[in-house]
Structure formats: structure tokens, C-alpha cells
Amino acid sequence: AICPHTFGTRPCDEQRAEALDLPHISLTRAFYVQEYQIAGFMSELEASIRGMGALTVGFGALRTFANERRDREFVAVEVAAGRDSVQAVLERVDHVMERFGKPRFFADARFHASIVRLDTQDASPRSVQRAAGILGAQMDEEILRLPAARIDTLECVFGD
Questions:
Q1: Per-residue pLDDT tens for 29-86?
Q2: Is 127 exposed, middle or buried (0-12, 13-18, 19+ CB in 10 A)?
Q3: How many CA atoms lie within 13 A of 71 on its CB side?
Q4: Scanning 75, 90, 135, 146, which has its CA 20 to 30 A from the CA of 62?
Q5: Model pLDDT, residue 126
């Protein structure tokens, strides 16, 4: 388990606090798509980003974010450098989302790479903040201040 402490009504390991192997920067909200729409969606998305070069981003401050359902909390590092490049990709992704009748990303997007996921369904907000702080403190400086990263892949994940 990442965290030996207890928060909410269960120990951290029972809340499935886990380090994420592949930090990523999300550019869409969670959305539903029918299986028959996937190929068309992917084709539109690929066409919209064709010709864009790789991005270089740097990371800074450690923050916590909750998903829209408020049943998961994420410890993340915010994008500190390269935000304009990520915003340019987001604008193209948002355009495709609108064409498929899907919600745009948040207007006040705070780009970040999640590094820890916490299941918070049965935990109080205060205990989640405490656990996020404990988890963040346990991580090496290298993880908290990820070096600049070159991003040359846009990946779509369908399914759970």
C-alpha cells in the first residue's frame, strides 16, 4: 500500500489509493460513445491534429483534483510550462467533441498529470485532503517535480 495511515472509515490500502504508472494530461471529460461511432470519432480526431508537432511541457505544483462524480480524488502535478501548446491541442479536441455532441472540456482547464488515484466514495473531504498530503509527502522530489516531458502521442481510451 502507498499509505499506511487511515482516513475516512477505511485504511488507505482498502480505499485503493494507487500510484498511476502512466501519468497523462486529460483533454476530455468522461463521455459515452456508441461502439459504431468510435471509428468516425477517431478519424475526425486524427484529422484535427494532423500536422501538429510534439509538445514539450514542464510540471510544477502538487495539487489535488476530484472527478465530476466526486468519487475519486487525484494527486497531480500541474503543467507549469507549455500550457499554450496543450491549450492548442485542446481547442482541436473540443471541436471534434462538439461535432459528436459531446461536452467540451472545462472552460477554466487546469492541465495536470495525475500521479495518484484515491477512491473517495466513503471518505470525508477533510480526510481525503489529509491522505493526499500524506501521499504527496511520501513521493520523491523527482516525481513531484517531473522534468520537462516531450509529448508526441494523443491516446484515446474507450471502455472502463
A1: 888 889 999 999 999 999 999 999 999 999 888 888 888 887 888 888 889 899 999 9
A2: middle
A3: 2
A4: 90
A5: 63
- Which amino acid belongs to residue 69? R
CB within 8 Å of 121: residues ≥ 6 apart:
71
pTM reported for the whole predicted model: 0.74
Q: How far is residue 19 from each of residues 34, 76, 108, 150, measured CA to CA in Å?
A: 30, 11, 26, 21
Residues 90 and 112: beta-carbon distance below 8 Å: no
Alpha-carbon distance values, 75 to 7, 131, 140, 158 (Å):
15, 10, 14, 23
Q: For strand 6-7 and strand 10-11, is the pairing parallel, antiparallel, or unpaired?
A: antiparallel
Kindly give, in sequence order, each residue whose CB lies less than 8 Å from that of residue 116, ignoring residues fewer than 6 positions away. Answer: 2, 17, 18, 19, 20, 74, 75, 132, 135, 136, 139
Match 461502439 to its residue by C-alpha cell: 35
User: DSSP labels for 118-141?
Assistant: EE-TTS-HHHHHHHHHHHHHHS-H
What size, in residues, is the chain? 160
DSSP-assigned beta bridge partners for residue 128: none
